[in-house]
Amino acid sequence: MKPEHWAPHVTVAAIVERDGRFLVIEEHTSAGIKINQPAGHLEAGETLAQAVIRETLEETAHRFVPEALVGAYMTHFERPHGAVTYLRFTFCGRSAGEVEGRALDNGIIRAMWLTADELRAASARHRTPLVMKCVDDYLSGRRVPLDFIHTHSVAPVVRA
């Protein structure tokens, strides 16, 4: 039997490279402490770019400036309560600076800068295989202009 309503979880992730190092986070998860890009869920009313800017600030205290889309990735996970699908949009860009003293999101242990080789060496600690896949895609030069993503805004319905 098919569920009456199914929708993928839409997430965003940021790749920030500085001097050959990538901005990543260590976070508490149900599977232990894991490494991930700054990432999270799209919230109601946000564009994908707004979501990745917000998530990067919340998880790293860095003001993220998206410059391109690296890729869109779909992953299916089997969970005890059923299958879950994630649709992840990964952006690359730069940090416009760190907000000193800003608290990080609950569950985030710290932000850190790792080389691609250091990330590869820590692959057993990655939250998902997409951590390295996205970095490898970025390193191979994958870039899609931001204007490839169109957000159609609908005016709210006014009810009398």
Give the SSE layout.
Elements: E1 9-18, E2 21-29, E3 32-36, E4 39-41, H1 48-60, E5 62-79, E6 82-98, E7 108-115, H2 116-121, H3 130-139
Parallel strand pairs: 1-6
Antiparallel strand pairs: 1-2, 1-4, 2-3, 2-7, 5-6
Domain Nudix hydrolase: 7-136
Cofactor: Mg(2+)
Subunit structure: Monomer.
Structure description:
The protein has 160 residues and is α+β, with helices and mostly antiparallel strands. It has a single domain, classed as Nucleoside Triphosphate Pyrophosphohydrolase (Alpha-Beta Complex). Helices cover 18% and strands 44% of the residues. The protein is built from 3 helices and 7 strands. A hairpin with a 2-residue loop joins β5 and β6. It is globular. The relative contact order is 0.24.
Low-confidence stretches: none
Count the DSSP helices: 3
**Mean of the pLDDT scores?**
93
Question: Using DSSP, what is the number of strands?
Answer: 7
Rough outline = globular
Distance between the termini: 40 Å
- Could you say what the CATH architecture is? Alpha-Beta Complex
- CATH level 1 class label: Alpha Beta
The amount of helix comes to 10-25%
Largest sheet: 7 strands, mixed
Question: Can you tell me the number of structural domains?
Answer: 1
- β-sheet strand percentage: 35-45%
What would you report as the Rg, rounded to the nearest angstrom?
Answer: 17 Å
Instruction: Briefly note the CATH topology name.
Output: Nucleoside Triphosphate Pyrophosphohydrolase
The class by helix and strand makeup works out as alpha+beta
Succession of helices and strands: EEEEHEEEHH
**CATH superfamily descriptor:** Nucleoside Triphosphate Pyrophosphohydrolase
